[in-house]
Design brief:
Radius of gyration: 27 Å
Strand content: 25-35%
Helix content: 25-40%
Mean pLDDT: 83
Strand order of the largest sheet: 1-3-4-6-5
Oligomer: single chain
Distance between the termini: 84 Å
Pfam families: CcmE (PF03100)
Number of strands: 6
Transmembrane segments: 15-35
Organism: Pseudonocardia oceani
Number of helices: 2
Protein name: Cytochrome c maturation protein CcmE
Keywords: Membrane, Signal-anchor, Transmembrane, Transmembrane helix
Largest sheet: 5 strands, mixed, barrel
């Protein structure tokens, strides 16, 4: 301390520098937490068009997500789950990908419904074990007598 009761200029500058370094470290940590976790929580999926075009990038066994519409009349029950076809378009112009889903399908699953599947290619067929069904926010109660 100086005679006037204040700290020497060098000590104040040192504390100011220490505060700036600490503030910078906190900012970097917060940025890493926010943006690092954000990237892991985003859901990316390929459309059937993209999946077929990039099939060489995803060899048999490499997992990815595939999203599209279930083709009308393509759903068939098989011993290990459900077999169906997914298309990126409703019309005949869309690329279609055969899918085998292993397990019990989601309750809202059916023809014409949007789905996001996680799985891998197996000999030209997409084999999935995880299914997410896309739906709108409109609730429609079950019809009388169907329960």
């Amino acid at each position: 301390m100086t005679a006037s009761g204040t700290a020497p200029r060098g000590v104040v500058n040192r504390y100011r520098l220490l505060a700036l370094v600490a503030l910078g470290a906190v900012a970097v940590l917060v940025g890493m937490l926010v943006f690092g976790n954000l990237n892991r929580n985003l859901v990316y999926y390929l459309t059937p068009d993209e999946a077929v075009a990039r099939q060489a990038d995803y060899p048999d066994g490499r997992r990815f997500q595939l999203g599209g519409l279930v083709v009308e009349g393509s759903v068939a029950t098989i011993p290990q789950g459900v077999s169906f076809t997914v298309s990126s378009d409703i019309g005949p112009a869309g690329v279609e990908v055969p899918v085998i889903f292993e397990g019990a399908p989601a309750q809202l699953f059916g023809s014409g419904i949007g789905v996001v599947l996680e799985g891998s290619w197996r000999a030209g067929t997409f084999t999935s074990d995880t299914m997410k069904v896309k739906h709108d926010e409109n609730y429609r109660p079950a019809e009388q007598g169907t329960t």
